[in-house]
């Protein structure tokens, strides 16, 4: 498992170097502070596509796993958790080594939670199905990251942005809020509040609070812009927000 996680870190390191070689929109090239963020988002997009579709296919192919969230096991699920652990480790190092910790602290908190939880799953072999359900969020992140890339590149097609805006909202409900709500209910009702169960439940509840906060930001930004506060004139080129 350690080799699989390390291999995943190396894969995302290679993707980061590939992203450096890709052409960048004029709006990104003209603002040096956006270069790191653009590259980082491209790597994040790649993880979302791979991990999101992987989780979706694995659960569709083996629906019986959903009947045993605590002890269900599949090789595909184990590989997926190792793969995503590698991404979170790589992204954490990318943020720290590029001196983005202060502006991207929310990501560091999120990644620390994900890495610690996933490592515990890999070691014990329990709750892998719960991790697979949580990684369905990456399907939603495909459209969320697309939204941020379009904003950074000043995409000229308002219709394209508007279409993605509504698709993003639907996906947010279907692949982020719904699985999170179900797992929260399941853990509070069926999982023992001790040891690993207590640790994962605490992580899940903290993630609930973060997701609701991000959802409120998304609604204010895309659907109720008049309610946004303190954003006028703010330069966020070098910052990495989960919702921006």
Automatic annotation (TrEMBL):
Residues 33-227 form the TLC domain. It comes from the Eukaryota. Keywords: Membrane, Transmembrane, Transmembrane helix. It is a multi-pass membrane protein. InterPro entries: TLC-dom, TLCD. It is found in: Membrane. Coiled coil: none annotated. PROSITE patterns: TLC. The keyword Translocase does not apply. The chain crosses the membrane at residues 41-60, 109-137, 158-178, 198-219. GO terms for biological process: membrane assembly; phospholipid homeostasis; plasma membrane organization; regulation of membrane lipid distribution. GO terms for cellular component: plasma membrane. This is TLCD1 protein. The gene is Tlcd1.
